[in-house]
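Hi everyone,

Forwarding the result from last night's run.
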Amino acid sequence: MIELIKATKRYGNNEAVKDLSFSAPSGQIVGLLGQNGAGKTTTLNMLTGYFPPTSGQVLVDGMDMLKQPRECKRRIGYLPERPPLYDEMTVTDYLKFVCRLREVKASAIDAHIKEIMQECGLKEVAQRLLGSLSKGYRQRVGVAQAMCGNPPILVLDEPTVGLDPRQVVEIRELMRHLGESHTVIFSSHILSEIQQLCQRVVILHKGRLIREADMSELTASEDVIRLQAIIVGRKAQLLPALKGLNCVRRVKVLPDPEPGLTQVELECNARGNDRGDPATQLFRLLCAMDAPLRMLMPVRDSLEEVFLRATSEN
């Protein structure tokens, strides 16, 4: 586990991050989300020990980064927004260089690099100069160098920035695979990417933490349940009845999947009453109307909606 405890970072009179506390449990992919200037890169730099917080603590497996920096940094692999590559070196030579820096045993380096290149899809460019690689391959090498020494924690700053759609998919799949055996913290502007990959999300705004939650919790509403339904029957008959349900706040009509079917999204009060929860009330109504229900499923907020709502409130 890696965590920040009441961490503040000041540059002169400017507070880039203030009283920030959050944790990344072992074996989870945690997304760090925020607008430009929210403090994401500053936060990652503190987590990796690149520079210390002005006040507060960084703990890695219970060890204080300031008191035991060597042991803490052994457990962390870091990919900054711009991968630290030497263009005149080949991929293999560069990874050997990084392994020596991270004190991998000399006898184990060749096998370790072979395993990393296999995992990151770099075997076909192993002898290519870094300066000749595409952006996508350079990002892969950046992830590979973070894996040297087999650290259990990977911290990635905007790992898909500047990539084309195919390269984004490739790096995303690599991150998903790494998340099976590592704790991964990464920042991104791409909300769909974080929603697809992360089990947990941390949202920063103007250097402060405004939300931290599991993805399932973050995209669920305490007050409202939204249900999408496909019902056999005509709109003229169904809509007045649906709007008349005690639990329904709003009915949104969606395109019909085929003639004779009505598709709607119901916004309902989350808390049930003496007539039952929203799904139960809907079933009873449709049974009484002899209107078969073809499909019913819950609809959650998108991460984009959660993010915009959280940052506008703050």
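Residues 38 and 205 are 5 Å apart (CA to CA).

Cheers,
N.
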